[in-house]
Specification:
5-stranded mixed sheet, single chain, alpha/beta
Length: 158
């Protein structure tokens, strides 16, 4: 699975303004709403589902990266977004570091394989230091999209 299969280009943000975990999640879900990828009536329910998943353990996986995610009955296909925070967000990350790079996923309830493949792709790409470093320095959504395209084409060697 590639980023192009699930990242909503129109929702990508290079300037996340949130200063805490819930704010970051709300801002990214709002970006998916603004891009027409989720139903407005489901906004609060999706935010709550992601926060509930966070209660199981932070999706701040370390090295300045978080991958908040959930499965939700209101979506019929996997959808995700990417956001960059230059200041960083306290996301209760496993290593205690501030988070600068976010990948948020919302998956259909009946497609766990897609959910796992997307998480696997994100995890694999984020192990590449060059990819992470460039993402953290991206100045606009077009730069982020270009990096995602390059990762999809294995240009970072992962």
């Amino acid at each position: 699975m590639k980023f192009a299969d699930f990242i909503a280009r129109e929702s990508i943000s290079a300037s996340l303004r949130a200063i805490d975990k819930e704010g970051a999640i709300r801002e990214m879900v709002q970006a998916l709403l603004d891009a027409g990828r989720i139903d407005a009536a489901q906004y609060e329910s999706i935010v709550k589902a992601i926060l509930k998943r966070e209660e199981l353990g932070s999706t701040g996986i370390g090295r300045g990266v978080a991958v908040p995610h959930t499965k939700h009955a209101s979506v019929d296909q996997l959808v995700g977004t990417v956001a960059i925070s230059s200041d960083g967000v306290d996301f209760a990350s496993l290593d205690g570091e501030m988070v600068h790079v976010f990948f948020l996923l919302v998956s259909p309830m009946d497609r766990p394989g897609d959910h796992l493949r997307a998480l696997e792709n994100i995890s694999r790409q984020l192990r590449n230091d060059t990819f992470c470093r460039f993402l953290k320095k991206a100045k606009n959504p077009a730069e982020i999209q270009q990096l995602l395209d390059e990762a999809d084409n294995n240009q970072f060697g992962s």
